[in-house]
Specification:
The protein has twelve helices and ten strands. The chain has 300 residues and is α/β, with parallel strands linked by helices. The strands form two sheets. An eight-stranded parallel β-barrel has the order 1-2-3-4-5-6-7-8, surrounded by five helices. Strands 9-10 form a two-stranded antiparallel ribbon. Helix 11 crosses helix 12. The chain is elongated, with a radius of gyration of 21 Å.
């Protein structure tokens, strides 16, 4: 897939991570509904299984591309086998390279240099491979803006859970309150430099908890979510896509408020009543943002 034909970064809602050497799981990913599939070569692929992951990589990327899914591979840090990972998998032309445990902008610069060299070596369109650093430590969190700006290839940044919790010294819980500050700071820093922020995965398997966690994701302003359990792809896509009912209400809010503003002329508009609810400027602006998001998905 040419870079110009790819799903835009702002529309990539669900990022499903799959064990890098599990052929069946990788193939099943095509039917998951995820916007992005990730062949994961770090946590989900023990070192002794990486050669198998390398062998099947080309076929996996071809299968995902044929299904119209954005392709990604997550490699290890360069100093921990990442160079070998890249040397093997870049031949398969993934659209996005992710790297785990990114804590400094220098790591991104070094990753860019290796990817640039391999694009040239393998005849890949120069500059076409996107980078998505994975931030998993407190140092990485503090350096989020610098990491996001370290290479023009960076189109998104992902914040992780388990290593982050361990680094903080807190305890992982289903409610996830231990990550409140991390998630809030992370999305603010990504927004400040204009890159997509990918929220951390919900690591448990209960559907009710996943629904609650997704509401937190949306309320914080995230437009993308990492997933480690395929059963949650639907809830991610559903929660991060404006519904028909939301679009209808937003249109009504905008129309009513605009009409009230015209009628008021030079006078200040305290608000407009929609379905018995007093709509004020923040509600109006939120409705405009929702309609803009809906239009990106072709929802009118």
């Amino acid at each position: 897939m040419k870079s110009a034909d790819r799903l835009p970064p702002q529309l990539r809602r669900s990022w499903l991570f799959l064990a890098g050497a599990d052929q069946q799981a990788l193939s099943d990913g095509c039917r998951s509904g995820a916007d992005v599939l990730v062949q994961e070569l770090e946590t989900f692929t023990p070192p002794e299984r990486r050669p198998q992951a390398y062998r099947i990589c080309n076929g996996v990327m071809a299968e995902w591309r044929a299904a119209g899914i954005t392709t990604s591979i997550r490699v290890n840090p360069l100093e921990k086998g990442g160079v070998d990972d890249l040397q093997a998998v870049m031949k398969a032309r993934p659209e996005i390279i992710q790297m785990s445990l990114v804590a400094t902008p220098q790591q991104v610069i070094a990753l860019d240099e290796v990817v640039t060299r391999l694009e040239k070596e393998y005849g890949i369109e120069p500059g076409s491979t996107e980078l998505v650093p994975n931030i998993e430590t407190t140092l990485g969190l503090i350096n989020t803006m610098a990491i996001a700006k370290a290479s023009p290839r960076v189109t998104a940044v992902l914040v992780a859970t388990e290593d982050m919790v361990a680094d903080i010294g807190s305890q992982r819980t289903r409610a996830g309150r231990e990550l409140d500050y991390v998630r809030s700071r992370f999305i603010v820093e990504c927004a400040a430099v204009g890159v997509s922020a990918i929220d951390c995965p919900y690591s448990y398997v209960d559907n009710e908890g996943a629904e609650l966690d997704m509401q937190i994701t949306r309320n914080l302003g995230y437009k993308a979510k990492a997933i480690v359990n395929a059963q949650f792809v639907d809830v991610v896509n559903r929660t991060l896509t404006p519904t028909h009912a939301e679009v209808v209400l937003a249109n009504k809010i905008v129309k009513t408020f605009d009409e009230a503003r015209v009628a008021a002329g030079e006078r200040r508009i305290p608000g407009a009543i929609v379905d018995g609810f007093l709509v004020e400027v923040p509600d109006y602006l939120a409705a405009r943002r929702l309609l803009a998001r809906a239009s990106q998905f072709g929802i009118s």
